[in-house]
Specification:
CATH architecture of the largest domain: 2-Layer Sandwich
Order of helices and strands: EEEHHHEEHHEHEHE
CATH class of the largest domain: Alpha Beta
Helix content: 25-40%
Strand content: 15-25%
Number of domains: 2
Number of helices: 7
Radius of gyration: 33 Å
CATH superfamily of the largest domain: OmpA-like domain
Length: about 190
């Protein structure tokens, strides 16, 4: 049984899709009958079988969703660290409505009448707003939610700008800058 072969001349070599090659000089004098029959091994190597199971990527949303907060207990204090990249747009201290509900859900464990320190932090990058003012304004925005939901809490607000980084910033790793942009809610207990 004869196999059809497709040929074309490229870069001085006659390429036959079945995998056989002849020099271009011989190609002008050759005909399809002069070409060798491809072996079954050569044909099997030239066929690629597509396996859809190996081509589909399963996306795991749990690895893509970042939590708004991180809670740590240290030396008798609880520190709730809010990622400001999720809460605020760059150079802004305005909380979206959805953020207030999330902050409210974090307050249930704070003891009644507790003193709560709300600290704002930025990275070292200078933006359209002064970092000291931005860190203070963001802390005040979070404190306003605390006061509204839990008027029994005694809140103190302070902006630290970039003076107390959580991690050392690395220009090659932007996540280090993001880790330093945060608001902390600190209380005893």
């Amino acid at each position: 049984m004869k196999t059809r072969q497709l040929r074309f001349l490229a870069s001085g070599v006659l390429v036959v899709l079945a995998g056989c090659c002849l020099p271009a000089a011989g190609a002008a004098e050759s005909t399809a009958q002069d070409l060798p029959e491809p072996s079954s091994e050569l044909l099997s190597k030239s066929v690629i079988v597509w396996d859809p199971a190996k081509s589909v990527i399963n996306w795991d949303i749990s690895k893509s969703v970042q939590s708004v907060e991180q809670v740590e207990e240290e030396d008798g204090e609880t520190i709730i660290t809010l990622a400001t990249d999720i809460l605020f747009t760059p150079d802004s201290s305005k909380l979206p409505g959805s953020a207030a509900a999330k902050i409210e859900s974090l307050l249930s464990k704070i003891p009644k009448g507790a003193e709560v320190q709300v600290n704002g932090h930025t990275d070292s990058i200078r933006g359209a707003k002064d970092n000291k003012k931005l860190s203070t304004d963001r802390a005040q925005a979070v404190a306003a939610v605390l006061k509204k939901v839990r008027p029994d809490l005694k809140t103190k607000v302070k902006g630290f700008a970039d003076t107390e980084p959580a991690v050392r910033e690395d220009p090659k790793d932007l996540s280090t800058y993001a880790a330093n942009r945060r608001v902390e809610i600190i209380y005893a207990g």
